Amino acid sequence: MSPVSSEFQPARPSVVLAELEARVARELSLLDMPHAPWIPPQGDPNNGDVLDAVVIGGGVTGLAAASSLLLRGVNKLLVLDRNPPGAEGPWATSARMKTLRTAKSGMGPTPGVPSLSPRAWYEATYGAEAWEDITFFPLNDWVEYLRWFKEVLGLPVQNNADVVDVEALSNGWLRLTAEVDGVTRLVTARRVIVCTGYGGWGGARLPAVLQDLPKKLYAHSSESIDFRALEGLRVGILGVGASAIDNASTALEHGAASVDFYVRRRSVPTLHRAKALINVGCIEGFGYMEGETRFEFLRLLQADGAPPPAHSVQRLREAGSHRLHLGSDITAVNADGDSLTLWANGQPHSLDFLISATGFEVDGRRRPEWQRLLPSMKFVGDDPELPERARQAFAHHPAVDRDYRILEAVPGTCPGLRNVFVLADAAIPSQGVGAVSVIGAAAVAAHAATAVIGTLFAEDSALHLNKMNDYCEPEYAVDDWPDPVESANPASTGRA
Length: 496
Hints:
By secondary structure, the protein is α/β, with parallel strands linked by helices. It has helices at residues 18-30, 60-70, 118-126, 128-133, 139-152, 242-253, 280-285, 291-303, 310-319, 388-393, 428-431, 441-459, 461-470; strands at residues 43-44, 48-49, 53-56, 77-80, 99-103, 136-138, 157-158, 161-168, 174-180, 183-189, 192-197, 202-204, 218-220, 234-238, 258-262, 323-325, 330-336, 339-344, 347-351, 353-356, 360-362, 420-424. The longest helix has 19 residues, at 441-459.
């Protein structure tokens, strides 16, 4: 299957957006954006020019971070994304919903420019009335909007670029090794912003019972799946969250003979407590709480599980019949040719294909690019004040500060580590879910961009001070000062 689904085609010809793009240009000019470059150029004697920032990941948070930096004068910038153009993030590959799961308001990578917002794009494409008619942003339009956002701002995205190594240099810079279209490329950067969403700091979580099966008989829900090949087959789904529901619906819509859900829980989750925290305060203030309090929030969010949204359940109902096996204790899955036998609660279940919608795990040991830096990192689980259960759950989550910068296990031993910012699932225990949310992406990225800008200026303070000291452009010539005249102000002669 192509990494970009054929269903996701441009909603309208680009000429329709010409007026909107003129508005974008006008609004940017009113804000004097992009700001003029202000960072003194740096050079690496071993590798030529040095970039001021590299963003790893070109999804919604990566685009938000890149745009926030570029518009504020950080122009020596590069976004590296391992996927082909148009397939950044999960939206055109493994996201199998019909619409986004989050309500349409207040989302997107917009850096405070109204005409760059998803709403502006949608209204320009379909009309203002069409925006009022939708509750959730259609997925195919979301894919096209993000492509447009990237192009209209000219964001420097290098696709097919897989970062395989990050090395901290002695001066605090970072050297990245990326495989770009099969060619190794070295990039030196002063700051690195990690925007890899869910799974980017580890990978897919797969039950142990699947790991010895032939790969043709199962897939994780985050992988590319040829659903056309599932026509007439018996499909099993592990899990009952939003991703599980979307994959089941897609399988049924492509003619699967049956779909069976296998769920460890004894009831289907229906309460989405996270909705109580969809506000600016939580997105921007989560990291200001003490660690134990943050854990209580996360514990409560996870206690009931995250239910699928109502419109996803309705889609499943319309897609066809299915069976739900609650309280399933799966002890084995055996392959026999082109079929599977799944053993749950001592009973066999015959299947042809299994989709594991079991989420992701955070564990940098699974990612080659972080192997050099892992020994120097402090992890959330290192906090002795946290309950033991939290320490175990977050043992591999890097601890990040309020600016999303990774903390060192021993301060001062690896200065380059403090120049890595994490806006991904690995930061959730420290900063909440804002960085992996379409609602929180813009605010989180702007916050991190401000920290990047501030630390770059402080790091270059001597150069800026020299520039200030060498400044020699007078406001006017001394000879231009007017000749003195007798003052007509009585106060100038003193009091009578």
